[in-house]
Amino acid sequence: MDAIDNITTRNSARELIEPHPSAQEMETVFEAALRAPDHAWLRPSKFIQITGDGRDKLSQIFIKAAHELNKDLTETQIVKYTEAPFRAPMIIILISNPKKHPKVPPIEQIISTGCAGQNILLALNALGYGAMWRTGTFAFNEAISKHLGLEKSAEVIGYIYTGTRTGKNKKIPIHDVKDYVDVWE
Questions:
Q1: Counting beta carbons within 10 angstroms of the beta carbon of residue 119, is it exposed (0 to 12), middle (13 to 18) or buried (19 or more)?
Q2: Which of 5, 56, 108, 183 is deepest in the core (most CB within 10 A)?
Q3: Percent of the chain, pLDDT > 70?
């Protein structure tokens, strides 16, 4: 797949099934992630790759964190949070841990992790897999960070669900670039 086609045709896949990327493919995906812009080479990004029984563990973490945030969870919420890790055969947790630096503010380092996430999405697409970046209740959440054993300065900025795309591709609207770009000459 041509690089520009990969970028301009990538879209989120809601329905994902086995197989998920192999260990060798994931090494390539993470190599792409680590090519994200990173001012001062601070390496703020970390990733947790979850498959198989690891999804059970993540499900338990989601429920523990949800109970800490809301003691009055409804049965519907409990089911939703319990089942969330099983919407795909693989989940990649995106973690940003900004370092103190006189020239590189935390937001720039969080953006670097976001760029790493985009590189992951593009690499998965180039390899023929579907993926969807999810946030919601369990992103930017101190309870989740604690249950994942992260340092206090680290936080989850998203979850990339991946596997083999099934169902129809979502229609992506075509945007007129002129609506989004000002050109100064």
A1: buried
A2: 108
A3: 100
Query: Is 165 annotated as a binding-site member?
Result: no
Please indicate if the annotation marks 169 as binding a ligand. Answer: no
Instruction: Name the residue ranges covered by the structural domains of the chain.
Output: 15-165
Cβ neighbours, 10 Å, residue 154: 17
Whether 152 contacts 100, CB under 8 Å: no
Q: Binding site annotation covers 184? A: no
Determine whether the annotation assigns residue 135 to a binding site: yes
State yes or no: 12 annotated in a binding site: yes
- Minimum mean pLDDT among 78-82, 150-154, 167-171: which range? 167-171
Q: For residue 133, say whether it is annotated as part of any ligand binding site.
A: yes
CATH architecture of 15-165: 3-Layer(aba) Sandwich (3.40)
